[in-house]
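Write out the 3D structure for:
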Amino acid sequence: MEYLNAFLCGGVLCAIGQILIDKTKLTPARILTGYVVAGVLLSAIGLYEPLVEWGGAGATVPLTGFGHNLAKGVKKAVGEKGWLGVLTGGLTAASGGITAAVVFGVVMALLFKPGEKR
């Protein structure tokens, strides 16, 4: 059942993004940042954690999950370090994902020949 919930949750989040691309004039970059901000806001008002518990990886892997992770990190760091945690908590919580993205980006650039599309 966990796999079905993850599939449904992730599928709905992706379908919403696809509808936004197809039916609006929003650019993919604006949709991306909107998803991250939505994850932060939903986490701040306490609605994203129940979605994570139900949807598992279907809720944590998409961009809304990245926003949720940032918000959790800030909340934890503020509790431990005070107001300095506002500046450090999000990056500390998301550092693994950010590092993986940079490392895999470099590896792919070394393996393949990056350049402009023609």
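Residues 84-111 form the longest helix (28 residues).
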